[in-house]
Design goal:
By secondary structure, the protein is an alpha+beta fold. 34% of the residues lie in helices and 26% in strands. It comes from Luedemannella helvata.
Amino acid sequence: MIGSLLVANRGEIARRIIRTAKRLGIRTIAVHSEADAGLPFVLEADEAVLVGPANPALSYRNTEAILAAAKQTGAEAIHPGYGFLSENAEFARAVEANGLIWVGPSAEAIVAMGDKINARNLMAAAGVPVAPGTVDPAASEDEAVAEAARIGYPVMVKAAAGGGGMGMAAAHDEAALRTEYAKVRGFAERMFGDGSVLIERYFPRVRHIEVQILGLADGRVVALGERECSVQRRNQKVLEETPSPAVSPELRAALCAAAVRAGEAVNYRNAGTVECLLDPATNEFFFLEMNTRLQVEHPITEAIFGVDLVEEQLRVASGLAPTFDPDALRSAGHAIELRVNAEDPKRFLPGPGAITTWVEPTGEGVRVDSGYAAGTTVTPNYDSLMAKLIVFAPDRAAAIERARAAVAGFEIAGPKCNLPFFAELLDNAEFVSGDYDTGIVSRMR
């Protein structure tokens, strides 16, 4: 097993990785910006190194500073968490070029799946269902219009290099397509340094389903069930649950088989997620993208399978077998994750601030992965995620009830907070029924 680990991230995911590493007897190193010096993940690591100012480009995305910290502290491996440098192939290569262990998939897999058009084409060749769309980037508005005529309206305009729900827009006719094409292309150039745009069929009513995969050290790829991720605001998830109330055993088997094929197509190692769109009218599913990293919502998979995915990541990176029998994976119960964000619960606009009260709920089946505590400050420099509230119960109805109680027992004062939104959602008849789609939040507003 790896002996020392530098966590190239911040907040709740850094703290969560450190917790597992320390349980395994691994020496932990945190890197942090000036703004994060007093956060729990910094205080709980065995060592901590300041890598730059608040601006993430000068700290958490500063490859040279992070590698220097690893050398300074004698780190043996680097875990990137999610976001920041986690899907940066050049960083992965630099880690390994410096003689360190990269806790993640190969740079080649990251590159292969990082471009949505290339990923679509790879998946189609591997027999994974893909939605009707472009094979090559639409190089101009006119080309986009021609592709949309072939595919059929409505269409989704997507940044090929995008991710996390960014760089996407729906168009229901040619005029809208021309407007959105220009917007998405400009956004993609600014945000990702790549203005490539693809056009795909847009499904007005759709569910967002993803499958957790793990590429093992022996070369096998296994699937650990699906997660329902359809509760979204601005194309970004705010609540996830597993198993999905929309997925039958037969559909689950098909989704997992397709996800394994996707991983095998790029010789995938370590944790990853294959995201799909599910048409509830036909039960057809289509490949959306592959996240070549650990997902924010991984704890709900851990809850129903009884595994620690960070431990499994570290075992794969160390060349070790998993803690479980890949041929006898079994899940039980139901789990829900709520992303507790520092944001207005009505309009979902960021609302950072100093935390004066922070009381986490406790009890059977309740887990909180938090990045903050009373006396710390949520700054505007980073994502608004403060904590993840995870509940587990024998069935979905019990999990919803447990989530209601946990939300009511979570006290946060200082920054704005979306806990009131979750109280509303958990009582929403559409959500409670299980028959919902990605439009549920907009219908609540």
